[in-house]
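Forum > Structural Biology > Help requests

Title: Can anyone predict the 3D structure of Dihydrofolate reductase family protein?

Hi all, first post here. I have the sequence for Dihydrofolate reductase family protein but no way to get a structure on my laptop. I'd be grateful if someone could post the structure tokens.
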Amino acid sequence: MRKLTYFIATTVDGFIGAPDGDGDFFYSHLDAEFVEHLKAEYPETIAAQGRAQLGIADAPPKRFDAVLMGRATYEPGLKAGMTSPYGHLPEQYVVSRSLTTPPDPQVRLISGDLPARVRELKARDGLGIWLCGGADLATQLIDEIDEFVVKTYPVFAGTGMPMSRAGFGVRPLELTGVTTLGGGQIVSTYRRRR
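Reply #1:
Sure, ran it for you. Structure tokens for Dihydrofolate reductase family protein below:
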């Protein structure tokens, strides 16, 4: 059975974007060591344009063969002409109530009972499913998330878009790995205790 992994960038105080959702400020905190770590451990999470620039366009998926993102996460790339940002993955899903036809043949749309659809995807054979974002999607799928990979950047935002809006609830996690990088980034992996 596949697992759903929320692989997300966050500030030290737990925000994944500015109040309007923009996360571009994270790019100013990328350094060579961090990029090399992503290339080596999570190459499939780098969008097609970045993969080409980094010389890993043909790198096979290592952990995920599917990506699930909300329309708001998908929209900036779409506006820039990237209709299939993760075309190197066999499955790309965009959750949307407003899109009625996929902007690209490689992108599949999901609407309706999202948790039930994700359970169907998890029941398939394959690598994992990467929950790319954002906060609203993580809120809807909080009970389906099996693993959290949190890339904490050395920045304090004060306010912004939280990792989730699921509301208070104690959801036990088990720390399964920590990688500290020279630029101050910390990649922490947690498994959901069921």
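Helices lie at 32-41, 48-53, 71-79, 114-123, 135-140. The two ends are 15 Å apart (CA to CA).
Shout if anything looks off.
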